[in-house]
Amino acid sequence: MASFVDRVVLHVSGGNGGHGCVSVKREKFKPLGGPDGGNGGNGGDVVLRVSHQTTTLLDYHHSPHRNADNGGPGMGDWRAGHSGETLVLPVPDGTVVKSRDGEVLADLVGEGTEFIAAAGGQGGLGNAALSSAKRKAPGFALLGIPGEQGDIVLELKSIADIALVGFPSAGKSSLIAAMSAARPKIADYPFTTLVPNLGVVQAGDVRFTIADVPGLIEGASEGRGLGHDFLRHVERCAAIVHVLDCGTLEADRNPLDDLDVIERELEKYAVDMSYAGVDGEATPLNERPKLVALNKTDLPDGQEMAQMVRPELERRGYRVFEVSATSHAGLRALGFAMAEIVQAARDLLETAPPKVTPTILRPRAVNKTEFTIRREERNLEPLFRVLGDKPEKWVIQTDFTNEEAIGYLADRLNRLGVENELFKVGAKPGDTVVIGEEDGVVFDWEPTMMTGAELLTGPRGTDLRLADWERPTRAEKREDYEDRKAAKAAARDELEAERRAGIWTESSRRRAAGADAAHESTRAAVASEEAAEGDWADDDNL
């Protein structure tokens, strides 16, 4: 089972916004007190926060799916829904956040540093917030917007000032244990260290951290060994210390060849821009200040080997220290040399002005286009795709089971200029219009729809512009007239039968007179409609 994880893929999703509420205030003696539907609450964010209490990404390795709370729906009596609680995920200091494509999104260094990995969705407005002087009692509300979701990659890069590199069993863990209070695992076989080790060293007034890279061997850049996977932990270091094994028992190895192999592997490693210096550039590992520690000089063969290779190393320009992790010989001098490099790097950070990108404030353009229309073709038919933050957001907020909400969306799109732009790009009535990408909402465009639904009278939640109303034909009107005439004749026959049966009453006489009056009114209405259409009918036909 893994006990140290320095790279995970995290699936995060912000909370969904709550839906707005449709409600009308109703009290005694005040049955229609106006709309009082509250707004929906905003969804919670997923936030990454640096915490010194966290040293590994192991928790996210076992539970990679993290979701924030959803916002609550609005309620009547102007009560807003509750906002979703923010989900705070603690991460170690030095965590780099990347996208799936490798783009660096954030470099989290320093206690309390935060990054919003997934923002929560916005809550929908209730009908109280949508009311206006013209639309006094909206019968609809806006839906909440779903929260952001996606995959991010977390990579842990330890905060170390000095990096110890070398072949397996060169004594890197032993040096850390001898120079600091760290107690890494130490054994007499290769690849003992499976995770990077950190130690804090005090040299005079300078305190710094050292870290080792386990398992760095020849071919690490092609995936051999473990070192290339852990080199990210020393990308922030100020200097590199080559730990060379002078007491190796392998006949085909010597310190100079080990140094050449490690230098080639460091050269092949590409440092990304997640950590850069004051000049905005990241220095490659092989170009940073270097020291050489000839380890295991307490052994007889080790002392002879160190004296043999030291002149060649100094000729190459290295500062060489003969040390022993067992007897602690030479460790004090090596510690002060490390502190000197670290202090110089810190002074450079303090004196050099940081590279700051100036903030440029640009006013919003008056004629800025909030959307674009792309002409496509589907099944040999034209298709017009409307893309833009506002139109796509408005579609998500619309309840398509409510006619009034659909009419409100049409008004918003018309005010934004979508209809005029469709005319310009050649759209015709009946053409297919899609708002959004592949999963967008599909409409059959009807440009003749007039705006101003708030001025039309109709039941709440309906829009008369969307009603299925067709003008009857002359044949349908004549058929309807004949049906009503037959019904009235049957009613008169029934009254006549009652009269003959001796149950004629004054109320029956009035009903008969009312039926005759309704009949004459219907005849006049039909004659008026047909006269307006230019189709004059004589009394015999009626």
Automatic annotation (TrEMBL):
Residues involved in GTP binding: 166-173, 191-195, 212-215, 295-298, 324-326
Domain OBG-type G: 160-343
EC number: 3.6.5.-
All copies of domain OCT, residue ranges: 363-447
Swiss-Prot/TrEMBL cofactor(s): Mg(2+)
Pfam families tied to this protein: DUF1967, GTP1_OBG, MMR_HSR1
Compartmental location: Cytoplasm
Sequence segments annotated as region (Disordered): 59-78, 475-542
Compositionally skewed regions (Acidic residues) per UniProt: 530-542
BP terms from Gene Ontology: ribosome biogenesis
Residue ranges annotated for the Obg domain, each copy included: 2-159
Enzyme class, broadest EC rank: hydrolase
Entry GO CC: cytoplasm
Residue numbers binding Mg(2+): S173, T193
Family the UniProt entry places it in: Belongs to the TRAFAC class OBG-HflX-like GTPase superfamily. OBG GTPase family.
Assembly description: Monomer.
HAMAP family attached to this UniProt entry: GTPase_Obg (MF_01454)
Name recorded for this polypeptide: GTPase Obg
